[in-house]
Amino acid sequence: MATTKRAAPHSKKAPATADAAAPPAKRTRRKKAPAEGSRGLPAGVLLAGPVPPEVESLAHAIQEDGGSVLAIYRDPLGAHPTLLAGLPLDRVEPTPFQRDLSEAHAQKLATVLDKIGIFLDPIIAFRRPDGRYWTPNGRHRLEAMKRLGGRALVALVVPDERVAYQILALNTEKAHNVRERAIEVIRMARSLADAGSDRAEKDFSFEFEEPALLTLGLCYEARPRFSGGSYHGVLRASDAFLDLPLPEALARREAQAERLLELDDRVTEIAAELKARGFESPFLKPFVVARLNPLRFRKGAAMAVDDVLDRMLDAAHAFDVGRVRPEQIARTGGPPMEEAA
Per the record, which residues fall in region Disordered (predicted)? Predict the structure, then answer.
């Protein structure tokens, strides 16, 4: 007599649950680091290869300007032709949109150079059509050599003038604070707009570093002692580069800057009212800005900068200093490090 084969007790599949049906979580793939020694040119071929005609013309122009070409080589990372040259000091000047000279830094650098008696750190420069040389990152070295009575300095001369607008990435002489970065960026934007650039503001995201610096730069131009560090975080979290030609983008940012200055006027009034009530903290303005910031309750939620400024202005005009308690101000961590620099 045939028997019916019974399935093993655990062979029956359990019904799928929601968790079981869910796909496995994606693992974030780490970007693979390039293999050591796999990128760029080997050291032995930096002087090899043909010299492009535009580089030959630049070398000839440097000699005509009273300088000397010490070497023409290809840079080891991107193989771009570069000239190591001696330039007459009186032909070199900083880019006009660079940050202001730090007297203390220039004097300290001059003292050090005078003591060691050797100029070891070439500047970066490019040649202007009028035979002048602009440096985006050598202002203090240039000034130090002038103070020492120098006649020449050594430069890495690049054929591409776009390097002049990559100042924030190239400047390694002295750390920038928020004010210096913002002023440089807005000066660069004006220079590019005046030169007739029809490119959009967003196309200069590398040169400008972050959109907040453009608006802050306009505020610093109007008010040199503006407390930009207090608002930097708010703008950085809400602002974005504009898809508008630079002249139009600057007009839009000027309107933003006016509203930010209006907000700052009210924040200053609130801080004065708090001080009149006996609050003596040096962090009153950062405290007020933090209380007005609508992003503090929106974890991960985006908000456009115009909406942020609207809400902050409304909150500032409705701010009640009578509801502020001493312990609230005591918890304020103080202004950003850049503002204290």
Answer: 1-44
